[in-house]
Every structure is written in structure tokens, then in C-alpha cells.
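Q: I have 352 residues here and want to know how they pack in 3D. Can you give me a structure?
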Amino acid sequence: MLVGLSLLTLVPGVVGGSERYARELTKALTGVGELEYVAFVPTVAPDASDGLPSLVVPEYRASTSMPGRIAAMSLAVAAPRRILRRLDPERLDAIHFPLSVMIPRMEGPPAVTTMHDLQHELYPQFFPRSELVYRRVVYGWTLKRSRIVIAISEHARETLIERHGLDPERVRTIHLGLDHEGFRPDGRPREPFLLYPANRWPHKNHARLLEAYALVRRERPDLRLVLTGSGHDGWAVPEGVESRGRVSDAELVELYRSAACLVFPSLYEGFGLPPLEAMACGCPVAVARATSLPEVCGDAAEYFDPFSVDDMGAAILRALSGDRVEKGLTQAARFSWDACARAHDTVYRELA
């Protein structure tokens, strides 16, 4: 049985958690997968298959810029024939689109798509009109043409069923995983800083976090706040706040192992990897009571209303003085990429 994985829309360093998922899935399938696979990869990410047999598809005009990405996807939709000739879909028993969109659009073989981000359904005000139209059109045909849809959390699954009227039998929840070799404690002492790893997007709720941080500093004047991710350039931040921009995975692990607490005030997450990664490194976590986050974090985090600055500040102080580290380690241990890959194999077999 030959399964294709279309990674054509992957752009290194841009698509965040969905890139982590796509790369970790292919890596895990290399180790524990029981079928035959071929990954279709773009010219901007020829290494994305991570050990799986792969085929670079130059006919898909991949780009790292936003205008270039839109142009590449639009061309793939309007004129898919050259791309399809390269993919030769008739030889496949099933195909998986791990990055939320069926590009190129095809009639066969039977397809499964992983839907990561349904934020536009809950917070349309965070999107320009053009992107809303694009998401509704492209996600619409993707869901219609996919025999099975994978949701990365139960919250995402319920949103798909409620907002798109999908048959519940067609929608399967497969949680993301963790690299437990990379994310683990090393016994170092905690330092007096809060950590928030997130691009500065509207739903990431940075403004309220800064207000909550100001409240917390009244009781803990020694406490710093470290921000990572893109979009912080030129942003005037208060005293005690450090913006580091994008950091490598190795640097992020160092921060998880050193921070006094991870604060995660996001208004929307399809899954929410950073809180789990922090827990796996022995870092206390204060997290928003929103969307998928309670499902992912269980009883191992301190929760707060992400719209309440006072509630956020109180939860941070509880996390700093509490002892949920062991619960966090136990919760993180429930998630692995190998288990994620095996669950995908089950879906692929069902498709064929």
C-alpha cells in the first residue's frame, strides 16, 4: 500500500506548529510506520520528508514570501495538471494533506486532510477580508473532497462538526506528540523570568499579558518576561520585558529548562504544543482556559480567563508558588509522535 503525503505548502519557519507536526510525523513514520510512503516536498523545503522517500515538485512554485505563497497556491488551484503529472496520483492508494489545504486539488485517490487552524470560525475579526474568503473557499472544498478529516484536538473536531456540518464518522481526533528526547528536564535551577513563545499575532493576546505582568511585578519586582517569536521588531515593551525574536529549537529548550513559569494567554489554539513542551522540561505552566488548552494540559496547569488581566496575574503567581511539576511531567508523557504516527497508519489503511 503506497501513501502519498503532500507537503507542498510547507514553508520553513512560517507555519509554526503545523510545520512541527508535518516534520515530526514523517520522521516518526520512518521509524514506526508499517506502510509504504512517498512525500511530495517543495523546493523551499527539500528536507521536509526527514527519511521518508520523497519527490521534490518544482512544478509547484513554492516561495517564502507571503505574495509568493499566495501566487503558488492560486496557480496550483487554477492549473494543477503539471503538478499532478509529477505526483502521478493514480499510483497511490491514499493521499494525506497534513497542512490544512488540499493543494493541488484532486479527484483521487481517497484523501485525508489534517485541519489545524479553525481560528477564523471563532475570531473572524483577526483576519483581513481577503484571507477570510480564501480560507472559506479553500477549506470548503478541502473538507468536501476529503474522505476523512483529522482534527488535532477534540475541540477542533467539535468545531468542524458544528461549523461545517460534517458527519462525525468522518472526523477523527489524533493528538500531536512530543519529542521526549529533546524536551526533558536537566536539573538546573529555575531563573526569575516568565516565558511566552509566540509570534505576535492578534489571538496570542500579548497586550493583556503585558498588563498582567505589570501586576505580578508589584509582588515580584525581580521577575522578567521573555518573549520569543516573530513580529516583535520595533515594538516598545515595558521595563523588564525582553524580546528575543525567533529562536532555535535548542534555544527554546534552554528557556523551558530555565524559566520560572511558562505563561500562555492565547485566545485560540488548535492544539497548543508550547505548554506541553514546557511541562516535559519540568517548567510550571499558567495557561488560558480557552479552546483546546484544557484538553491538552489536563490538571497539570494553573488556568485563567484570557480576557481578565487580574485572573491572569493571579494564575501566574499561583504557578510560581505551586507544585505542579510532577503532574506536568506525567501529562506530557501521554503524548508521543510514535503514537501519533501509528494512529495515522490506521486512517491510511481505512482509506484504502
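Q: Anything worth noting?
A: The radius of gyration is 21 Å. The CA atoms of residues 228 and 244 lie 5 Å apart.
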